[in-house]
Specification:
With 244 residues, this protein is α/β, with parallel strands linked by helices. It is built from 11 helices and 8 strands. The protein is globular and about 50 Å long.
């Protein structure tokens, strides 16, 4: 799945001008086809997991023009950045379809993955061992830790095809080493299962944004229940304007 600048701007709820700024400073992975930037699915996934969202917000709020304007339409685009993008309430719906799993036993990520897949596989109508293998393969490719004690285990393929997108919030019995860039042990995991690549990226972007929210982070530290998290996420997503 290849993404355009417009796709990535909508995904992160920022202007296309902000994406150009990131490209100018080599802060986002891309490649060129016929002079146009394209972005690979796995590369953008890894970038979302590793990039400091505070830098992204600073880039989005910067008004400095960094590339020449060729027409009036481009001028309007920069002066009126994108105000929506991520599908509203998609995370709320996925959490509603999923569940909260507390005190999951395991000293290693593989143990947690194995324990969780035995619980969630029937809901996805897949074999638990195959699901665990797919999740582990993705971790072997690159750890899915967001930093600050959070991680988003997911597969490289859509696993909820023909079904609802699902996110399971998992609180392990004890924090565990997860290969995070900040070296902090993980205390909360979001197991993400989407029905399409587009939905997968939208949910991953939402979770990455949510992880930088102080109130949300405290709710996760407190191991909040499903109703509490759903109420917070619904209100939080409701404040995000959509582009339509």
């Amino acid at each position: 799945m290849d993404l355009t600048i417009k796709d990535v701007a909508k995904l992160f709820n920022i202007s296309e001008a902000a994406i150009h700024r990131l490209l100018l400073h080599n802060k986002i992975p891309s490649y060129c086809i016929n002079g146009e930037h394209r972005f690979g699915l796995i590369e953008i996934e890894n970038w979302m997991l590793q990039f400091d969202l505070k830098q992204l917000q600073e880039t989005a709020s910067c008004d400095q023009q960094i590339y020449p304007l060729t027409d009036q339409k481009q001028q309007v685009q920069i002066e009126n950045p994108v105000s929506g993008g991520m599908v509203q309430f998609c995370l709320y719906r996925a959490l509603h379809q999923g569940d909260i799993l507390s005190n999951i036993k395991g000293n290693k990520k593989e143990d947690i993955i194995s324990a969780v897949t035995k619980i969630v596989a029937p809901k996805l109508n897949v074999d638990a061992e195959i699901l665990a293998e797919l999740l582990t393969d993705r971790e072997d490719l690159s750890p899915t830790a967001l930093g600050n004690g959070l991680a988003v285990p997911h597969t490289r393929e859509a696993m909820a095809k023909g079904s609802f997108d699902m996110v399971f919030v998992v609180y392990p019995e004890s924090p565990l080493e997860y290969g995070a860039l900040d070296s902090k042990p993980v205390h909360t995991l979001f197991f993400l299962f989407a029905g399409s690549d587009k939905a997968h990226l939208q949910l991953l972007a939402k979770l990455a944004h949510l992880s930088s929210h102080k109130e949300a982070f405290q709710l996760l530290l407190d191991r909040s229940d499903k109703i509490t998290l759903l109420d917070f996420v619904r209100n939080w997503e409701g404040q995000i304007r959509s582009t339509g």
